[in-house]
Write a structure and sequence with these properties.
By secondary structure, this protein is of the alpha+beta class. It has a five-stranded mixed sheet, sandwiched between helices. The longest helix is centred in the last third of the chain and has 15 residues. The chain is globular, with a radius of gyration of 14 Å.
Length: about 140
Amino acid sequence: MSLAIVAAAESYFEGMRHVLDTVAREKRYLAFLQAPPTEETFAFYRNIVANDLCQVVAIQDGVVVGWCDVLPTHGEARAHVGTLGIALLPHARHCGIGAKLMEAAISKAWAKGLSRIELTVRTDNANAKALYEHFGGA
């Protein structure tokens, strides 16, 4: 089984949207219940790539199985702050891929000059909370 953590690129957009939609439809982890329309989602991803923002993708055996990003928050006074998002297909959970994604995204965020990363998590998501705490979240 091969695993690569790579920067987001247009060739991965379809797979990234599939992960987003799959996780959203679980109705447990994201703020929406399905992915936005394809063109809207791809426009969002294109902006990330064009501006060299922090988004990485997990490719397992040639298939996108997850992504993690640290995207800037709004407002000039918060230009140093990014918000972390992560999603993994169910079969890709509990095998270290999330930690690898977070490590790569967080490294890039620090390199881009962010000095604070924020995230939210549901109180009943013990697995995500444990992962975030491993990286220093509280």
